[in-house]
Design brief:
Blueprint: E1 63-65, H1 66-72, H2 78-86, E2 90-92, E3 95-96, E4 103-105, E5 110-112, E6 115-116, E7 124-129, H3 145-148, E8 158-159, E9 168-174, H4 177-184, E10 192-198, H5 204-212, E11 214-216, E12 219-221, E13 225-228, E14 236-241, H6 247-255, E15 260-268, E16 271-272, E17 281-283, H7 286-294
Parallel strand pairs: 9-15
Antiparallel strand pairs: 1-4, 2-3, 2-5, 5-6, 7-9, 7-17, 8-9, 10-14, 10-15, 11-12, 13-14, 15-16
Helix pairs in contact: 1-2
């Protein structure tokens, strides 16, 4: 049987010339192909120009869509977030953003009606700190309080204020910037109660000086309240203060010639150590969170 194709002469010729036929060669034929044999039927791709720039809506590995960022913060759903973006309620790094699909970094300053939000639900963790742990987020200080609360939440919480390595007691962690600012506000602050032990009895005249306020290195240092601990030696006192760290407490007693043997923070606002063993943590209840916001 002949391998020669039959046709009217108007069809495309075979790329291979058969012996014993009168078909023209590819060079002399009437129907020259306009496609490159190497490319086949693949379309020609245009190379991107040199001036091509990345849009703010282009996703990278370290960015997140703005509406998802807002939804993750717990403020609203993603659909509702789109509505707030469209109406100009959202700013990123001080600029109003109306673009749908806008990409932001986790460290960007994103604000909802002027209030800064985080790309994760807000978390509030209360720790009863033991001695020997540094209050820092750095991993270069040996054992830190972050090691103690590492399993509490996936949110990026940080401790509020300071508490010396050799001090113990309550320490609050959160990613809520509003609460952080409330605690660290030098004019308002939040009351904290400490149980202190001194190397010697606190003299009545020194007790009165602390109660009235001291001037240390040109700065006025005031406390909210001071008292002797009931049914205990006068080496033990209770001190209520709004400052965020125990450094100011040490400066008070250093100024008066005493050494601090023990510093234990027993209350933060209305939060206490009840049912919270040393070295343990717990999440705040919504009622406790609301109380902190009202301080």
């Amino acid at each position: 049987m002949s391998r020669e194709r039959q046709g009217s002469g108007k069809g495309r010729t075979s790329g291979r010339q058969q012996s014993g036929t009168s078909k023209p060669s590819g060079r002399g034929g009437q129907h020259k192909s306009d496609r490159s044999p190497a490319r086949g039927n693949a379309p020609i791709r245009k190379k991107p120009g040199k001036n091509t720039s990345t849009s703010s809506s282009t996703k990278t590995s370290d960015t997140i869509r703005l509406n998802k960022y807002i939804a993750n913060s717990g403020m609203c759903s993603r659909r509702e977030a789109d509505m707030y973006i469209a109406t100009g309620n959202i700013t990123v790094n001080g600029q109003v953003i109306n673009e749908m699909g806008y990409q932001v970094k986790r460290e960007d300053d994103v604000r909802f009606d002027g209030r800064r939000i985080q790309p994760e639900p807000q978390a509030y963790v209360l720790l009863n700190k033991p001695k020997g742990f540094a209050v820092t987020t750095s991993n270069e200080k040996g054992m830190t309080v972050m090691d103690l609360v590492s399993g509490a939440t996936k949110a990026r919480i940080k401790p509020i204020g300071r508490l010396g390595r050799n001090a113990s007691g309550l320490l609050l962690f959160t990613n809520d910037d509003t609460i952080h600012q409330k605690f660290t506000n030098s004019k308002k602050g939040v009351e904290k109660l400490y149980h202190l032990e001194l190397n010697k009895n606190l003299k009545p005249e020194h007790f009165q000086k602390i109660q009235e306020g001291l001037t240390i290195e040109g700065k006025k240092v005031t406390v909210e309240e001071i008292s002797y601990v009931h049914d205990a030696p006068q080496t033990q006192v209770g001190l209520k203060i709004k400052n965020t760290g125990s450094g100011v407490i040490r400066s008070i007693f250093d100024h008066l010639g005493y050494q601090l043997i023990k510093v234990d923070r027993v209350m933060i606002g209305s939060l206490t150590k009840k049912d919270l063993a040393r070295g343990r943590w717990r999440h705040l209840t919504q009622l406790e969170v609301n109380s902190l916001r009202m301080l």
